[in-house]
Design goal:
Helix 4 crosses helix 12, helix 6 runs parallel beside helix 7 and helix 11 runs parallel beside helix 12. The protein is of the alpha/beta class and 378 residues long. It is 35% helix and 20% strand.
């Protein structure tokens, strides 16, 4: 853990005067129990979840960093009541803004890499969506193949733009060597996405889910998220009415749907980095977007608490088993007795996350689309 203490070179402590109320916090509020880096970097050995601010916004064309955004989220988050004190949280302050954009990427990548290698789950707040690139690179440093999820109204592959926030996905998805085993894009809005872009994503065997499909049956997104290590969420995916700082679209996810996706992310035993990006305090109204993000983090922690009860797939006494055949393919479905989640077995004997709806489709002798897509990628 000695490397953790060297991270102070990359971090700025939280200024308590910028986030706390004069009257302090009530008993039971997060602000009473969270350990915060004010003067000395805390020993994070006992903290499984770490909060990390990053104010870098030059990737979206801003000339200076938005230092107020992480603190606005902190201010809202600390006021929420903490139902799961068994999961201890440490706030390590903000990653220092580098002399260049790439310097900031390197600092965020270094800090996050050290933390996940120490077994921590890292929640990144503030900054623009291109910081997802640094988030991904902390896995590629160790040559770890991962599944990743991005929640955004747009698919940031605009190679004609000079802004990294508009085209960072190109580098993330195509750079060699590449360590993305699979990529899922959730809640894109069709009028922001060129049809040819979706064709390209499909040829790469990546899956994209239109916002309408997400809203129609959000439970189908839980299996999409379950095997991912990295979650990147741009608040542009949330309708302006629920996140006023989003000036991209009046449409999108509502606040509850955004929180539900974060709960699914927390339920995953694989997710160890969550970045929530695109928040600009200057665009917000009454700090409502900061509160929305704070509640999303709360639901992530809620999901993480519930995930602690899940059994391993090898412990079959904790699962209901369903053996069936569809189109002459024999398979097995597992349903957790603890969380109700589902898995289905592929021909190579591995199990992948699925939903109850996939089971119903297979029981009716049809092939679940999720099964087909997994076979195409194998």
């Amino acid at each position: 853990m000695d490397a953790i203490f060297n991270l102070a070179d990359f971090l700025e402590p939280v200024n308590p005067h910028q986030i706390s109320e004069d009257e302090g916090y009530l008993n039971g509020q997060i602000g009473k129990s969270i350990t915060v880096y004010h003067e000395e970097l805390p020993d994070i050995e006992e903290y499984p979840v770490v909060l990390l601010g990053c104010a870098e916004t030059r990737g979206a064309g801003y000339k200076t960093a938005d230092n107020d955004s992480p603190n606005a989220v902190r201010k809202a988050f600390y006021k929420l009541f903490y139902w799961h004190t068994e999961i201890k949280i440490a706030d390590l302050g903000n990653v220092k803004t580098g002399a260049t954009l790439n310097d900031s990427y390197a600092a965020l990548r270094t800090v996050t890499h050290e933390l996940i290698n120490a077994g921590k789950t890292v929640i990144i707040i503030g900054g623009t969506h291109d910081l997802s690139l640094a988030q991904y690179q902390c896995y590629s440093l160790d040559k770890k193949y991962i599944d990743a999820v991005c929640v955004d109204s747009r698919i940031d592959l605009n190679i004609d733009s000079v802004l990294r926030a508009d085209n960072f996905l190109m580098e993330m998805l195509t750079t060699e060597p590449n360590y993305l085993k699979h990529y899922n894009h959730i809640a894109f809005q069709s009028y922001f996405v060129h049809p040819h872009m979706l064709e390209t994503m499909d040829k790469l065997r990546f899956d994209c889910f239109r916002v309408g499909r997400v809203k129609e049956d959000i439970e189908e997104m839980e299996p999409v998220i379950r095997n991912s290590s990295m979650i990147s969420f741009d608040i542009a995916a949330i309708a302006n009415a629920f996140a006023p700082a989003n000036r991209v679209s009046p449409n999108g996810l509502n606040g509850e749907e955004a929180c539900t996706l974060m709960k699914y992310a927390g339920l995953s035993s694989f997710v160890n980095t969550l970045g929530i990006y695109g928040y600009d305090t200057k665009q917000d109204i009454g700090e409502l977007t900061a509160l929305q993000i704070a509640q999303m983090i709360w639901y992530f922690i809620d999901g993480r608490y519930k995930s602690l009860t899940e059994a391993r797939l090898s412990d079959r006494e904790y699962f209901n088993e369903f053996h069936l055949a569809f189109t002459e393919v024999e398979t097995t479905f597992l349903q957790s007795k603890k969380t109700g989640r589902w898995w289905m077995k592929l021909p190579d004997e591995t199990f992948i996350p699925c939903s109850y709806n996939d089971y119903l489709i297979a029981r009716n002798n049809d092939i679940p689309e999720r099964w087909l897509r997994a076979q195409e990628r194998s």
